[in-house]
């Protein structure tokens, strides 16, 4: 790939004084916040790519993930990265995948995008790429806000969460983006949690083994936006799974389902208390619990009626 002002090259680390592998996906010396779920996800992706012997190129829209790279011409990424506009990452990735096919190259083309560029601004181009079944692995690190621009609400922000644009708490439910993508009948869609690393790794292997558009939704704690403790990030998203707030499941071809983890149905207040973005007294916790159980029961019925047989 030719270097331009929109391409982060992989030849120079962001801080040359730090010894690191030139081949690692995310290099030491990056500016990501402590406890950032995106950083953990990138490192887990790096390990699975190395394990499977695959290489990748990234298309990243405006988000924390592209700030990670640092200032051109240096980069904290160890792979070629194209920085795209907020709405165009799937379109750019489609072109990258097309070039790879023409040149008979085997690199994985990966969109690495936040929820703002996925649920909202980039949804049109993502839908178009999904309808065409482009050979792209799309990974959304969902930190449930526009984290890079001051912490505004997105359609991924959960009910009751306070942001800079919802100071009294968001009054709408979180958008069900996985169902939207599954409705395109793409080969594979799944949810990921850094608090469940074995499940995370298995789903990455599955996605990397397939062709076509594969969509992975990663619950990505953001201590800055969630007003939580960086050291508790992994535990925090484990609580979300245990409370049924973030179910772990997979969908193949929009038709067959598999539920991966049965929630322990802990009190969601344990999750809310560890984040200052929530005022527990303003949330109808019993209603949240009922809705979580109804949603999970629906997923279980789908998995029973339309099971995936591997």
CATH topology: Rossmann fold
For the record, the CATH architecture stands as 3-Layer(aba) Sandwich
- Largest sheet properties: 9 strands, mixed
Q: Low-confidence parts lasting 5 or more residues at pLDDT below 50?
A: 1-20
Distance between the termini: 37 Å
Q: Radius of gyration, rounded? A: 19 Å
Mean pLDDT: 92
Strand order of the largest sheet: 1-3-2-4-5-7-6-8-9
**Number of separate domains:** 1
Quaternary form: single chain
Question: What distinguishing features does this structure have?
Answer:
disordered N terminus, 9-stranded mixed beta sheet, 11 helices, Rossmann fold, alpha/beta, about 300 residues, about 15% strand
SSE map:
Layout: E1 7-8, H1 37-52, E2 56-60, H2 64-67, E3 81-83, H3 89-102, E4 108-114, H4 116-120, H5 123-132, E5 137-142, H6 177-182, E6 188-193, H7 197-209, E7 214-219, H8 223-226, H9 233-242, E8 249-252, E9 256-259, H10 269-273, H11 285-305
Helix pairs in contact: 1-7, 3-5
């Amino acid at each position: 790939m030719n270097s331009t002002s929109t391409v982060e090259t992989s030849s120079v680390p962001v801080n040359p004084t730090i010894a690191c592998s030139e081949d690692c996906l995310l290099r030491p010396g990056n500016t990501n916040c402590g406890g950032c779920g995106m950083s953990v996800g990138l490192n887990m992706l790096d390990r699975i790519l190395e394990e499977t012997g695959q290489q990748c190129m990234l298309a990243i829209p405006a988000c924390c993930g592209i700030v990670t790279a640092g200032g051109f011409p240096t980069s904290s990424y160890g792979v070629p990265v194209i920085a795209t506009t907020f709405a165009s990452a799937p379109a750019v990735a489609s072109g990258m995948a097309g070039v790879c096919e023409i040149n008979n190259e085997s690199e994985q083309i990966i969109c690495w995008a936040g929820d703002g560029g996925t649920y909202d601004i980039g949804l049109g181009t993502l839908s178009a790429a999904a309808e065409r079944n482009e050979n792209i692995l799309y990974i959304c690190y969902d930190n449930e806000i526009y984290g890079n621009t001051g912490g505004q609400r997105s359609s991924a922000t959960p009910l009751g969460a306070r942001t800079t644009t919802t100071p009294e708490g968001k009054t709408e439910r979180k958008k069900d983006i996985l169902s939207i993508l599954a409705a395109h009948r793409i080969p594979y869609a799944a949810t990921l949690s850094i608090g469940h690393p074995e499940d995370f790794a298995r789903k990455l292997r599955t996605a990397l083994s397939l062709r076509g558009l594969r969509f992975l939704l990663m619950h990505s704690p953001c201590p800055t936006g969630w007003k939580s403790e960086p050291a508790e990030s992994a535990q925090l998203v484990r609580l979300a799974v245990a409370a049924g707030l973030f179910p772990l499941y997979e969908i193949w071809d929009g038709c067959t389902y598999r539920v991966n983890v049965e929630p322990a149905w802990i009190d969601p207040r344990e999750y809310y208390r560890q984040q200052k973005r929530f005022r527990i007294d303003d949330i109808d916790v019993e209603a949240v619990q009922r809705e979580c159980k109804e949603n999970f029961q629906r997923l279980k019925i789908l998995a029973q009626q339309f099971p995936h047989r591997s």
